[in-house]
Design a protein that fits this description.
Low-confidence stretches: none
CATH topology of the largest domain: Rossmann fold
Strand order of the largest sheet: 3-2-1-4-5-14-15
Shape: elongated
Strand content: 15-25%
Number of domains: 2
Distance between the termini: 68 Å
CATH architecture of the largest domain: 3-Layer(aba) Sandwich
Mean pLDDT: 97
Number of strands: 15
Radius of gyration: 22 Å
Structural class: alpha/beta
Bound molecules: 6-O-phosphono-beta-D-fructofuranose
Number of helices: 11
Order of helices and strands: EHEHEHEHEHEHEHEEEEEHEHEEHH
Largest sheet: 7 strands, mixed
Length: 350
């Protein structure tokens, strides 16, 4: 009997741990399930153009600790292209792929959910540094981003203290504050601004002034890129964008709120203030041990779902168990930060 051929792609923003997933899928699939693998380059773009490569055990050896993705990635949305769905269906058939493992966030997995509805055998793996995917407690990549941001906050702490300054650290996370809250708690932030619970600038300034009155002469403020600027408590918030462009999934490019917050703090408190925008550093380099293990567990579970013929599912972490959830559930809504976690951060404000 001919061996089954399985396709694998990584889509959306890259994140540490992608290579751990690819390695685990191929290793378990070749050795235990006797599958062949086709790597699809640049996410959905590669499936539209059949830009692919045969993936062997040798190709996935030595990649566990490497950041990025050996398969490259893109934010291509095939459903926006004329006949995109038909092109994908045709290419899958012509290349004899019996299933697709799709590693991505909300957008990439949203396409996988649509393809599954159209009869294509898809299994999803939840990836994003933002941790904003429903259906799973954690996405891989998030832990690495939180660790990078925490280290940055630690470093900023000592220079803030030496200069008696306020330091504002802007982190990624899109429209959620997962990275901000967790790195803020881990790094001992004096205030964390997140989209889930808006705080106006006056309240931020009052808290900093109070802190300095009780003898502290520096402060650390962590700001999520998706938090909004509110000048007064009853203000309607404003999202700060890098430009007016949107990507193929309609997402705006967030960024820049840190600089505005820093200026407002300096103006409102009189304390010298600086800003650090962490940006893509949070997505670069080696994954943490947690993300290597989580990516490996996800990869193994994904190829096992393929072997069982359980399609239309995403592997997810619930408690400490990896379980399948419907792809449709995973992409139904953005997962925002729990109120309890924000309350924990708040204990340390001011
Ligand atoms: O979704 C991951 C993420 O890093 C977000 O936190 C950020 O807003 C966005 O991607 C940046 O996208 P790009 O890589 O296109 O600049």
């Amino acid at each position: 009997m001919a061996k089954k051929k399985i396709g694998i792609l990584t889509g959306g923003g890259d994140c540490p741990g992608l290579n751990a997933v690819i390695r685990a899928v191929v290793r378990k699939g070749v050795v235990f399930h006797n599958y062949d693998f086709v790597g699809i380059y640049h996410g959905w773009a590669g499936l539209m153009q059949m830009n692919t490569v045969d993936l062997t055990l040798r190709d996935v050896s030595g990649i566990l600790h490497r950041g990025g993705t050996i398969l490259k990635t893109s934010r291509t949305n095939p459903l926006k292209e004329k006949d995109g769905m038909q092109t994908i269906e045709r290419n899958i058939q012509e290349n004899g792929l019996s299933a697709l493992i799709v590693v991505g966030g909300e957008d990439t997995l949203g396409v996988a959910a649509k393809l599954y509805e159209a009869g294509i055998n898809c299994v999803g793996v939840p990836k994003t540094i933002d941790n904003d995917l429903s259906g799973t407690d954690y996405t891989f990549g998030f832990d690495t981003a939180v660790n990078i941001a925490t280290e940055a906050i630690d470093r900023v702490h000592t220079t803030a203290e030496s200069h008696n300054r306020v330091m504002v650290v802007e982190v990624m996370g899109r429209h959620t504050g997962w990275i901000a809250v967790e790195a803020g708690i881990a790094g001992g932030a004096d205030m964390v601004l997140v989209p889930e619970k808006q705080i106006d600038i006056k309240t931020v300034n009052d808290a900093i002034i109070k802190r300095h009155r009780r003898g502290k002469d520096f402060s650390i403020v962590v700001v999520a890129e998706g938090a909004q600027i509110m000048r007064k408590p009853d203000d309607e918030g404003t999202l700060i964008l890098q430009d007016q462009k949107t990507d193929e999934f309609g997402h705006v490019r967030l960024g820049g709120i840190g600089s505005i917050v820093a200026k407002e703090i300096e103006k409102g408190t009189g304390f010298e203030t600086r800003v650090v925008i962490l940006g893509h550093v949070q997505r670069g380099g080696s994954p943490t041990a947690f993300d290597r293990v989580l990516g490996t567990r996800y990869g193994i579970a994904a190829i096992d779902l393929v072997a069982k013929g359980e399609f239309g599912k995403m592997v997810s972490l619930r408690g400490n168990k990896i379980v399948p959830v419907p792809l449709s559930e995973a992409v139904a809504e953005v997962k925002t930060v729990d109120a309890e976690l924000i309350e924990i951060a708040e204990v340390f404000y001011g």
